[in-house]
């Protein structure tokens, strides 16, 4: 698995670079059948990632190429699960909170994850031995993409935390009544509580870093939204479980490629 990690990191950086090339222009926005936004950045990043992952010989499920029949993919043991631009709404709103997400799935479990947030130029990645955060990532990766070097230049997750507040991280674009109810219940349990809104997979990155204590998500999400972040959280000792039954972690390559409502917890 680790021998793929260097390649996937380079692919994510390249995709992020293409996204930034669109971000700085007066781009147009189209809308999919589900009314979610689609930009040139989504399609450019998708093309780069799909082409790059061909080298691995593993099949790919991508948000922008999701129409693979279940009877074809149901027996895939190992495959890539990709969101080429997670947080298109944040991209359109130009708040910088979007990312490139690439995960390796084995037997329905995310075992390797790469998340690159191009605006802050921050990379999160994991393999079977742990998870890391690399700042100023583009220059470091271009200079020397050897995975041992990248790990040495990175901070291993979770990070040390001095903030005493109980921190709930929630979606910037999908705050609903169930989430508000959850927050109100947590306020009754904790005297010092902080609510943080983030876009895209950066919420899961906060869980992996240990900067947040819980991330609740009520409602349906797609598997490509969570897979890379889930892999990184798992590598730190954290977990993502179903709200309906916290004994059950999220799994991948389900027939509808959707997640139920879930909660993400850090390692502590």
Would you mind describing this structure in some detail?
It is a single chain. With 268 residues, the protein is an alpha+beta fold. It folds into two domains: 2-156, Fructose-1,6-Bisphosphatase, Chain A, domain 1 (2-Layer Sandwich); 166-265, D-Maltodextrin-Binding Protein, domain 2. It has nine helices and 16 strands. The chain has helices spanning 2-23, 40-53, 70-73, 88-93, 137-143, 147-153, 177-189, 202-209, 223-235, and strands at 30-31, 37-38, 60-62, 78-86, 99-106, 109-117, 122-127, 130-135, 155-156, 166-171, 193-198, 215-217, 221-222, 239-242, 258-259, 262-265. The strands form five sheets. Strands 3-4-5-6-7-8-9 form a seven-stranded mixed beta sheet, sandwiched between helices. It has a three-stranded antiparallel beta sheet with strand order 12-16-14. A two-stranded antiparallel sheet has the order 1-2. A hairpin with a 2-residue loop joins strand 7 and strand 8. The two termini are 26 Å apart.
